[in-house]
Amino acid sequence: MRVQLLGQEPQCMGENALRAIELGSHGVDANFGCPAKIVNRSKGGAVLLQYPESVHDIVKAMRQAVPKEHAVTAKIRLGYEDKSLFMENAIAVYEAGATELAIHARSKVDGYKPPAYWEYITEVRKRLPIPVIANGEIWNRDDAKRCIEVTGCDSIMIGRGAISLPNLADTIKTGATPYTWEQTLALMLSYTQRELNGRKSDYYPARIKQWFTYLNRQYPAADILFRELRVFKTTEEIVAVLETAQRNLND
């Protein structure tokens, strides 16, 4: 497992990278892909893709700070307002000493709207000698196969797809059967217990509702249940709805 860092100051990123390693991380990753406005206003995330030299300096500072036996990686998008600097940013990451690069195949302005422009990743993969990981618009096993065929990448990264279908990685790698709604609901309740026993319980209502916005893509039953629980604001009310739904499935 690697800690992912986000920031704009090379020295601070280097210091934090080293601290992450000291605390047990197996490597560190620089996030140049985050499109969130609050992050970009602070000159972090995807906004840095307008300045390949800054991307280079940040990754270089992390690489110099971290012992050679630990990986230093980065994730980028294809650009900020457009894709004109996609190759410059990829080369900046490589020349700064990164050991691999993950690319979300959209610009910041593209957000998460389909399609993902996998063909740009193909160009980077052909140009760089380090591993390139493809990311973007992978919702099922067929999407993963097409992405690999288009990009030629050996590895892919999944994000929202894994929230929509919790065992997506297993279906891609081993051909496992996608989780049923019953299995996914049981997983949600297991997640619930972990959250309520930890320090994140205050955020539980918002997180579970956010999860449902992706589950709705995969499971019609999730949309029906979400319509019922979305009006509730307390953890107790939401947990009661989930537990009732599970009992009804088991009856």
TrEMBL record:
<dbReference type="InterPro" id="IPR035587">
    <property type="entry name" value="DUS-like_FMN-bd"/>
</dbReference>
<protein>
    <submittedName>
        <fullName>tRNA-dihydrouridine(16) synthase</fullName>
    </submittedName>
</protein>
<dbReference type="Pfam" id="PF01207">
    <property type="entry name" value="Dus"/>
</dbReference>
<dbReference type="InterPro" id="IPR042270">
    <property type="entry name" value="DusC_C"/>
</dbReference>
<feature type="domain" description="DUS-like FMN-binding">
    <location>
        <begin position="2"/>
        <end position="247"/>
    </location>
</feature>
<dbReference type="InterPro" id="IPR013785">
    <property type="entry name" value="Aldolase_TIM"/>
</dbReference>
